[in-house]
Amino acid sequence: MTAARDKAYDQVIGTLMAQRSRDMLLDLVEWTVSANWRKDAASASIEKFATRRLNAAWRKVLRKGKGLGDLGPTRLHRLRISLKRMRYAVDFFAPLFARKQVSKFGSSLEKMQDCLGLIHDEIVSRRIVAYFGLGEMGRMEMTTRSRQLKTVETRFKHLKRQPLFWKS
To answer: Any idea which of 20-29, 36-45, 50-59 has the lowest mean pLDDT?
Structure first.
């Protein structure tokens, strides 16, 4: 354990002492002092930035949700994380857009996220039950899980039909 830590420290020190690191720091200082970054930031529209960010998050949700009925636990969890990130972006940029449209879209996201959360909790509880040898205690029946997956599919279809408030 100590040898691995010492090796990692040596690698970090070697990287920091390398010419490439020094060049990067000099470039960073030059860029900061030049103030060009302030002009670029001030000329950018927050609405355009928000739209780009929301579009990117939405594309990721759509991509991760493809073939939803056939997704395994890992891919369902990745979809859940993408939905969560999408919701954070929606909440953050909400003041820039019409409240009613944001609210409908956000509510649809939240419902789907809650459903995926239940499925994720069930999967994790199965692992815990198996790990501690607790038998069948607290496990969701397969029919209940199947219903949850159908609910997720329905909610995903509903979410995809929601108007994208940032594109109006």
So the answer is: 36-45
Q: Which CATH architecture fits 45-167? A: Alpha solenoid (1.40)
pLDDT at 72: 86
Is pTM beyond 0.90? Reply is no
Of the two residues 6 and 62, the one the predictor is more confident about is 62
The torsion defined by the Cα of 6, 12, 17 and 19, in degrees rounded to 10, comes to 140
Residue 109 has what pLDDT? 94
Q: Which residues contact 90 (CB under 8 A, 6 or more apart)?
A: 54, 102, 105, 106, 109
Mean pLDDT on 123-150: 71
**Residues found in the chain:** 168
Q: Where are the domains of the chain?
A: 1-43, 45-167
